[in-house]
Write a structure and sequence with these properties.
The complex is a heterodimer of chains A (about 600) and B (about 170).
Chain A: H1 5-9, H2 17-27, E1 32-35, H3 42-49, E2 55-58, H4 62-76, E3 80-84, H5 88-102, E4 107-113, H6 129-133, E5 139-142, H7 149-161, E6 167-173, H8 174-178, H9 204-215, E7 220-224, H10 226-231, H11 233-246, E8 250-252, E9 267-270, H12 277-285, E10 288-292, H13 298-301, E11 312-317, E12 331-334, H14 337-350, H15 357-371, H16 387-401, E13 405-409, H17 413-421, E14 430-431, H18 442-452, E15 457-463, H19 474-479, E16 485-490, H20 495-504, H21 520-526, E17 530-534, H22 537-549, E18 554-559, H23 594-597
Parallel strand pairs in A: 1-2, 1-3, 3-4, 4-6, 5-6, 7-8, 7-10, 8-9, 10-11, 11-12, 13-14, 13-15, 15-16, 16-18, 17-18
Helix pairs in contact in A: 2-3, 2-7, 4-5, 4-18, 9-14, 11-14, 12-15, 16-17, 16-22
Chain B: E1 8-18, H1 23-33, E2 40-45, E3 52-62, H2 63-75, E4 79-84, H3 85-88, E5 91-102, H4 106-117, E6 121-126, E7 129-136, H5 138-152, E8 153-158, E9 162-165
Antiparallel strand pairs in B: 1-3, 1-4, 2-3, 5-7, 5-8, 5-9, 6-7
Helix pairs in contact in B: 4-5
The chains are: A alpha/beta (about 600), B alpha+beta (about 170).
Chain lengths: ~600, ~170
């Protein structure tokens, strides 16, 4: 800045701070901004009114603006952009920001602020936005000088998209937006930031160590997470190439679904608390584990002291603070998943040591016996629709349609069933709130996806409780004619709460019943959409087909079995080999220890 | 957190940061938000044009926790360098203390005698009080304060630790 400001000062300033913000957004490649106006950001709204480069999508609640930007970002790989006003605008956005932080989603959120001379005076709609959002963002800025506006916007986009991606807040006082400000171009990519320099290229010595370990492996597994998705589609292609080269089994985390094709014979399904029997037993029994872009989350590891007890672990992650945080590993590799996979493929090919093919064949025979358990089987009998069956039919019918399909979810049982029964062959097609577990995520996220992919099929697989948390966004769908499909698995319960109360709290269903539900068909109609309902199995396929054929927003209310539980399940505090399987299947120990009860 | 409770240790960490608004809040928020200990923390600008500040943090935890603390600090955008002086080798740790002792008669004489033994200087005196200035590591200041307590210790102000590695190697950006 110091190098450019004297130059800028010699020219007459013609742009307001708000205009400089919009110019910087445009130069950063922003095409869409999700927002909600208010007093402190009126100058930006005035500037938006007078230009055509950036499209503004008016949401109905600021939290939804952030989730919509997340959906946009996750389905495109671009930085999502949000604009909200000061005070309540900013505080409403906080849940979305933390959601994006936990799931490593690149966002830039512009918040209005009271004018600089009023900061700290408890002015109308004032909030300490940088203070409140500090632990909910990767970084944040309060712009106090007009000459910093353009530089901060450029820097915010760099911070949001580079390294481990995340949300960045720029707090903009109203006087800074009104006053004239100089525009400066984004610094060239070759000019590094003064202090922030994330590592993306791996240390080749570590890559060679990892490959040497994998060549010796008799019972290997590749456990791939959201880092592969965030690296870009090329990383997913390289993951497939590496899996074929090695013949290793692959499991994905909830965040990683789509990084490896679900139809691939080497795919074990999702792992973790509601992962498949085969994926979790492979994790438990493996001798070499390659963690590619995942973070040993507690939903994945189960009881840490019993996690993969015989495995030598390789952990590839772009964030050095993820390494040795929960699980100590033998070979850490810091870098971008795509670059690490490319390096591993090269080293694997160069290395003359043959892999242990016989042992690997025996490992696959073992895996096939675990697969034979068919842990996701369920019995669909009679009229009552099983929720698993609803998701499975949704998957099969959308596949038959051949359309490019994007799935978002809310949070709870329906989310896990979607992860288990809906297959993804490509990255960026699956948007779910993994880290924070935010009910109300799915509908606004689907909105953002549909904005980015106007011709694609976008479905929010929802529960009847979660959907009510951001139901107001039905109005946004109507306004912008976004043909998002909301597929509600309606069991009249906060299903996952009900399930834990059944398993852990003696069946005392405290406050988990969804009383006084709206009529979702009429609700859809009142929001200018189409409402459909299936109450019996015989109606299910027709409702799904009609939903897909409708080129308008649709709510499909699917009445499903009320007491169905989501299995397999690793109870909290248990190890991977202590899974509970569904009714009629032998499983591990179904008990939960007192130690486990305190875990979430 | 995996169990490595066996090797709890103390660590003195030097952090070079951009001297900008909010940077200290980021560091302190990181410690409180993630449940790490702060035993002492000092901060001041250290370069000619006052763009860089040096934060010295004394903390403790298991080896895994201390590695986490360093990685988490390094992840903050305005952080340039993080150095664990405890691992970097022999290093000096000092703090400055101003210690007010109130009393009369024989107590005043004893206070001066002890101050002399601890190389504490008198920087303010009245007929019924002294203010001593002393530097040293935390143990030395603790010991001096403990001795002064029965003599009339009235008030203590301490900076917390600052630290630097011995020898020619230097921490810079």
């Amino acid at each position: 800045m110091s190098a450019t400001s004297p130059h800028a000062a010699t020219q007459p300033l013609t742009m307001s701070g708000a205009e400089v913000v919009l110019r910087a957004l445009k130069d950063q490649g922003v095409e869409v901004i999700f927002g909600y106006p208010g007093g402190a950001v009126l100058p930006i709204y005035d500037a938006i009114f007078q230009q055509n480069a950036i499209r503004h999508i008016l949401v109905r609640h600021e939290q939804a603006a952030v989730h919509a930007a997340e959906g946009y970002a996750r389905s495109t790989g671009k930085v999502g952009c949000v604009l909200v006003t000061s005070g309540p605008g900013a505080t409403n956005a906080v849940t979305g920001l933390l959601d994006a932080l936990m799931d490593s989603i690149p966002l830039v959120c512009l918040t209005g602020q009271v004018p600089t001379h009023l900061i700290g005076n408890d002015a109308f709609q004032e909030a300490d936005t940088t203070g409140i959002t500090r632990p909910a963002t990767k970084h944040n800025y309060l712009v106090k000088r007009s000459e910093d506006v353009a530089r901060v916007v450029h820097e915010a986009f760099h911070v949001a998209r580079s390294g481990r991606p995340g949300p960045v807040v720029i707090d903009l006082p109203k006087d800074i937006l009104i006053n004239k400000a100089p525009y400066v171009e984004a610094p060239p990519a070759t000019q590094p930031h003064r202090s922030y320099r994330p590592v993306t290229a791996p240390d080749m010595a570590q890559v060679r160590k990892a490959v040497a370990l994998m060549k010796q492996a008799e019972r290997p597994v590749i456990y791939a997470g959201g880092g592969v998705i965030n690296s870009g589609p090329e990383a997913s292609r390289l993951l497939g190439e590496f899996a074929r080269l090695t013949g290793f089994p692959v499991t994905n985390t909830l965040m990683g679904l789509g990084a490896f094709p679900s139809q691939d014979p080497q795919f074990l399904g999702m792992l973790g608390m509601h992962g498949t029997y085969e994926a979790n037993l492979v994790m438990h029994g493996c001798d070499v584990m390659l963690n590619m872009g995942a973070r040993f989350d507690d939903r994945v590891t189960g009881k840490l002291s019993h996690f993969a007890p015989t495995a030598k672990k390789i952990h590839a992650d772009i964030d050095p603070s993820s390494i040795n945080k929960n699980v100590k590993v033998e070979v850490p590799i810091v870098g971008d998943a795509g670059q690490i996979l490319a390096a591993m493929i090269q080293v694997w090919k160069e290395d003359s040591q043959p892999p242990k093919r016989e042992a690997l064949a025996a490992w696959w025979r073992q895996i096939d016996t675990w697969r034979g358990k068919n842990c996701l089987q369920y019995v669909q009998q009679g009229k009552i629709i099983k929720p698993q069956h609803a998701v499975k039919r949704l998957y099969e019918i959308t596949r038959e349609s051949g359309r490019d399909t994007f799935i978002t979810t809310e949070v709870g049982q329906h989310q896990m069933w979607a992860a288990q029964y809906f297959g993804f062959e490509k990255p960026n097609r699956w948007m779910t709130s993994g880290g924070l577990g935010t009910m109300g995520y799915g509908l606004p996220a689907a909105m953002g996806v549909q904005i980015a992919h106007p011709d694609a099929l976008v479905i929010d697989i929802a529960g009847e409780a979660s959907i009510l948390m951001n139901i107001q966004e039905m109005a946004t769908l109507a306004q912008y004619r976004l043909p998002v499909k909301v597929f509600i698995l309606n069991n009249e319960y906060m299903g996952m709460v009900r399930q834990w109360q059944e398993l852990l709290h003696g069946g005392r269903y405290s406050e988990s019943y969804s009383a006084a539900l709206p009529d979702f068909v009429k609700l859809a109609e009142s929001f200018h959409g189409v409402g459909l309902r299936a109450t019996e199995e015989s109606q299910l396929d027709d409702v799904i087909r009609e939903m897909l054929a409708t080129d308008r927003p649709v709510i499909a209310d699917i009445a499903v079995a009320k007491d169905e539980n989501c299995f397999p399940m690793i109870p909290s505090g248990a190890a991977h080999n202590e899974m509970i399987l569904g009714p009629g299947q032998e499983g591990g120990v179904a008990g939960v220890t007192d130690e486990g009860k305190v875990l979430v | 957190m995996a169990d490595d409770s066996g090797n709890f240790r103390s660590a003195t960490i030097a952090v070079l940061v951009e001297n900008e608004a909010g940077v200290l809040a980021r560091v302190i928020g990181l410690f409180s938000g993630r449940g790490y200990n702060i035993e002492s923390l000092t901060v001041a600008p250290v370069d000619e044009d006052r763009r860089l500040s040096r934060i010295t943090i004394v903390t403790s935890g298991t080896e895994m926790v201390i590695e986490q603390i360093k990685a988490q600090l390094d992840r903050l955008v305005p952080v340039h360098k993080v150095s664990d002086l405890t691992l970097a080798g022999p290093h000096l740790v000092r703090e400055l203390a101003l210690i007010k002792v109130v009393g009369s008669g024989e107590h005043r004489v004893e206070a001066l005698r002890l101050a002399d033994a601890f190389r504490a200087r008198v920087v303010d005196a009245t007929t019924e009080s002294f203010v001593f200035e002393m530097t040293g590591n935390a143990e030395k200041v603790d010991a001096f304060c403990a001795l002064m307590r029965p003599i009339g210790l009235a008030e203590v102000s301490r900076t917390g630790a600052v630290a630097i590695v011995r020898g020619s190697s230097a921490l810079s950006v």
